[in-house]
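In full, the data.
>
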Amino acid sequence: MHESLARGLNFNMMEFAPDSWVINGRAYPDTLKPDGDPSLPSQPHGSEVQVGVGQRVLLRLVNAGFLTHTVHLGGLTGRVIAEDAFPLVSGRKDASYEKTAITLGPGQRVDVLIVPEHPGEYLIRSRDYSRVVNDDSFPGGMMTRLVVLP
């Protein structure tokens, strides 16, 4: 698609067949590299999250593509507190809800609050196994790690 558009040609989105999937512009295992890694100059921000037990973590999940994605929280439970910039908690009204996997439609944004209770490493990844590959090589794609320290 990029090459066609760069040359001023039309591209039929019905023929779009990606072979790479990314989080923060990186595919696993590059998602685990730190911010500012010199091997990734065009992708300055890493995707791994490190927190302590009981520390609140806000994940803002944004589907910037045109396909639906389900993000699995690696065995953690998150509370969805906002959808598409609309808070689900206001005063005494609480419409937030808990999930272990969140499905995002094209262009959708969801804010998820996680408070991990146990130390460990949790893989945040696409639930669709065809999206955790790099050019059909597993593991890869839409996957990163949330590390919970004691």
Q: What stands out?
A: The chain has a mean pLDDT of 92. The first strand starts at residue 49 and ends at 52. The two ends are 45 Å apart (CA to CA).
